[in-house]
Amino acid sequence: MAKRIIISVVVLVIFLAVIGGLFYHKLTSNIKQAYAIAHMPIPPVTVSTGTVKSLVVPQAIHVVGTLTAVQGVQISAQISGNVTAIYFHSGKSIKAGQKLVQIDNTTQLAQLKADLAAESLAHTNLIRTESLIKHRAAAQATLDANQAALLQAKALVAGDRATLSKLAITAPFTGYLGLRQVSLGQYVSPGSPIVTLNTWNPLYLNFSVPQNDLAKVHTGQTVKLQVDAYHNQVFTGKVEALSSQVDIASRNIQLQAVLANKRLLLKPGLFGRVKLLTGINTKSLVVNADAITYNTFGDYVYVIKKAVKAGKTTLTVASVLVKTGKPVGNDVEVTSGLKAGEEVVTAGQLKLRPGAVVVINNTIKP
User: Fold this and answer.
1) Strand 99-103's sheet: what is its strand order?
2) With respect to CATH, is domain 75-195 assigned 1.10.240.10?
3) Alpha-helix residue ranges (DSSP H) falling in the chain
4) Torsion sign (Cα): 294, 297, 299, 300
5) What is this structure's pTM?
6) How is domain 45-57+283-360 classified at the architecture level of CATH?
7) CATH number, span 61-70+199-280
8) What's the DSSP call for residue 162?
9) What are the average pLDDT values for consecutive 10-residue runs of the chain, which has 366 residues?
10) What is the largest distance, in Å, between two alpha-carbon atoms of the chain?
């Protein structure tokens, strides 16, 4: 019995020793592996770079503007009546004086005939009275009454003709029509819309600038307009007028520029981004816009630095907070944080951290 106990104890001790040896071996292997991983050199990150440049930048005011027609009107009826004829098509060009719509004029035509007859009679009576006056067969009062009657008859005829001209609606100027808003037989009353008419070349560009920029603006300045419909094109014009007062509610002053529109690409009502060139130039630092990393805690860029490690010169990066200004083409104005000539990362920032080793490959486009 004692032998069995001794054998069992010996077996247990041997088993525990084997288990302990395996555990110790595993533990030391893990420690060595963790140490090796911790001290493994991080591979360099491939990035592309750009240079901080010093440029003379034309100062500009960036706002939003709206295009309006130099001449634009909603053509409407002046006298009530039914539409008896339509002479235009929606969206077409039209000449000044061209007839657009005819409103029923039968009553007015009949009235004109009656008034013409009355005018003719008044004229005849006046001639007869003038002949009698020469022979002293009529009183001067009769002559005066007949002269007044003729003038009154002519006034009635002129009124009839004016009414008829208002019933025949014509284009007040040459331009482009909008969509037709009446139909044959429709009854229209004074003010009923018929069609819009606008000129397209040139166009007015209306925009406002803050009162703080009042000293920078004047007539004759160049404006550049970009609209989403033609995002790759820039339309150029000149400031023609400034408002006579600053708006009390917004504290902005309204400006009006004139833009040529020879290709008729632009239409009244379009809005777009306006760049008003003030004519003032300043020397500024600019950097490629892709170099800026925007963050709620501040905008920053990665600047390339040289470091010596193990006797070898390597390239690392440092995170530098910057303050940005206005866009300059594909670049951004930098007002603080950088110096002219510094090299900054323009692509590959997502893999970087301060002090990371980098390799420059400028075939990578930002």
Assistant:
1) 168-170, 99-103, 81-86, 187-188
2) no
3) 2-38, 106-134, 140-167
4) negative
5) 0.65
6) Beta Barrel (2.40)
7) 2.40.30.170
8) H
9) 71 73 72 58 81 84 94 94 94 94 94 92 86 78 86 93 93 94 94 94 95 92 93 92 94 95 93 89 86 86 84 85 84 88 89 86 72
10) 181
